Structure formats: structure tokens, C-alpha cells
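User: I've been trying to design a sequence by hand for this structure and keep getting stuck. Would you show me what you'd pick, starting by listing the structure so we're on the same page?

Assistant: Good idea, let's start from the same input. This is the structure you sent:
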């Protein structure tokens, strides 16, 4: 499958997730949620890859949050523009989504933490409001917390099952889709250091 075909298939699957999950809710609303989740997965995997730096002995997602020192966090934010703790990675959240009774508020906290991690750094302006359109407490997701969590879990599961292919394909697809739909997270997608995949200079040990 060519990169163009991969992008087309990825776009088709993204809209399918939105239509499958939304029920009676306006399709546009759920496309925003799916795109936001797609971006959350992308920056999580990109960030974990940066920390691991190609070292197969490091599995960032498996590390406890408390091994992260201030130096590691500071260095990562200066390089990437933001920080995500192991427990906040997309894969960790998605894996436990259906059993997490506080999924919507946990996601809200994670998104705020990612945004606030850039406070006081040059990337603050770019990161601020990154997930502003991803309101995990909105009644558009359902009238009860249970309904909200069920829809969010389905979106997370759907995005988790997507085959990103190569990093280049994932990047170009995300960029094209976010640009087409004027998402506020588009500025981070090009060759911006906030999504750089350069090797880390420090890593947890």
C-alpha cells in the first residue's frame, strides 16, 4: 500500500469512528473529538519515542511517573515543547478506558497538564489551548458521566486500533486533516520542535 493509499484509508477510518460513535449527535462534533484523540495518540507516541531514543531497553510507558526527575522534564520540554508522564500516555489511558469510571475527568486533567507543562517556556504560546475543543465534560458526549465515558472509551479504542503506518505517513495525514478542518492544534504539526522526534539528550534510568 502506497503512502497516499495509507493516508486515504486512515482518513476513511477516522470518519467511520466518528459516525459509529456519535449516535444522534452531530457528526461534526465527533469528528473534532476523533481528531483530538488522534492528535493525543500522535504526540504520546512521538514523545515516548523521543524519550526512548531508539534504546530497546527503555519502555517509557512502563516506567513509574516518580522516576522522572526535574532535569529530564526540563530538558524534554525545551526540546519537545511539552511533557507527558508515562501514566498520561494515550496507550495507557486507552488500555483502561472501559474500566475507568472517571475517564472524562482524567482526560481533562491530562490535557490540562500537557498544556501547563509548557508554562514559562518558549513553547507556551503554541501549547496553550491545545485541547480547547476537546471538552470531555460536554453534554454533547452524553447527559450522564457514564454516557460520556462510554463514548470517550469508544473513540479511544477506535483510534488505538488505527494503523498509523510510518511516522511520516501519520504526520502528513494528521497535518492534512487538521489543516482542512482548521484545528487549533495544526501549528504544532509541521517541522515544529514541539513534535520533533530527535533523540533525547537525557533519559530515565
Amino acid at each position: 500500500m502506497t503512502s497516499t493509499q495509507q493516508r486515504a484509508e486512515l482518513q476513511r477510518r477516522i470518519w467511520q469512528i466518528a459516525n459509529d460513535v456519535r449516535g444522534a449527535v452531530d457528526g461534526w462534533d465527533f469528528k473534532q473529538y476523533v481528531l483530538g484523540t488522534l492528535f493525543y495518540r500522535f504526540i504520546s507516541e512521538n514523545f515516548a519515542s523521543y524519550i526512548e531514543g531508539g534504546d530497546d531497553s527503555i519502555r517509557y510507558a512502563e516506567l513509574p511517573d516518580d522516576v522522572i526527575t526535574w532535569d529530564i522534564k526540563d530538558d524534554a520540554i525545551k526540546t519537545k515543547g511539552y511533557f507527558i508522564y508515562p501514566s498520561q500516555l494515550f496507550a495507557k489511558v486507552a488500555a483502561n478506558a472501559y474500566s475507568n469510571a472517571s475517564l472524562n475527568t482524567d482526560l481533562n486533567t491530562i490535557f490540562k497538564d500537557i498544556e501547563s507543562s509548557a508554562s514559562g517556556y518558549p513553547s507556551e504560546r503554541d501549547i496553550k489551548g491545545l485541547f480547547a475543543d476537546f471538552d470531555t465534560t460536554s453534554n454533547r458526549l452524553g447527559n450522564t458521566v457514564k454516557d460520556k465515558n462510554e463514548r470517550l472509551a469508544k473513540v479511544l479504542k477506535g483510534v488505538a486500533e488505527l494503523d498509523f503506518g510510518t511516522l511520516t505517513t501519520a504526520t502528513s495525514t494528521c497535518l492534512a486533516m487538521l489543516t482542512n478542518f482548521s484545528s487549533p492544534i495544526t501549528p504544532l504539526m509541521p517541522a515544529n520542535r514541539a513534535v520533533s522526534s530527535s533523540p533525547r539528550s537525557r533519559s530515565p534510568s
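That's my pick for every position. To get oriented when you compare it with your attempt: Residues 181-202 have pLDDT under 50 and may be disordered. The CA atoms of residues 90 and 185 lie 17 Å apart.
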